[in-house]
Write a structure and sequence with these properties.
The protein is of the alpha+beta class. It has one domain. Helix content is about 10%, strand content about 20%. It has one helix and four strands. It has a four-stranded antiparallel β-sheet, with no helix packed on it. The chain is globular and about 40 Å long. It starts with a strand and ends in a 33-residue tail after the last helix. The relative contact order is 0.17. The mean pLDDT is about 85.
C-alpha cells in the first residue's frame, strides 16, 4: 500500500532518515490523525481472497497507539463543499 494525497489533508508527516519511509499526507485535529492509502492490483486481489489487511505501527516496544483501518469515507459531506 502507498500513502495517497487527499483534499482534506492538513499537513504532511515526514522527517524520517529511513529511505523506505515516505511522506504521509494527513488530516490532523486534536483527536485524530487520518491518512489515505491505495492498494496495488496485487494487494487488492490478495485482500479479496484472504480477507486480511495487516496494520503496522512503528512506535516503541511497550505500547501501541489506538489505530483503525476502514473503507468508509471519514469526513462529513455537506452541500456547501460540493458546490
Amino acid at each position: 500500500m502507498r500513502p495517497s494525497k487527499f483534499r482534506e489533508s492538513t499537513g504532511i508527516l515526514s522527517g524520517s532518515s529511513e529511505a523506505w519511509i515516505e511522506d504521509l499526507p494527513v488530516f490532523k485535529d486534536r483527536q485524530k490523525c487520518i491518512s489515505l492509502w491505495r492498494m496495488s492490483l496485487q494487494e487488492r486481489l490478495k485482500a479479496l481472497f484472504t480477507g486480511k489487511v495487516w496494520c503496522h505501527v512503528y512506535s516503541g516496544d511497550r505500547t501501541q497507539p489506538p489505530v483503525y483501518l476502514g473503507t468508509r469515507y471519514p469526513f462529513i459531506i455537506t452541500k456547501e463543499k460540493n458546490k
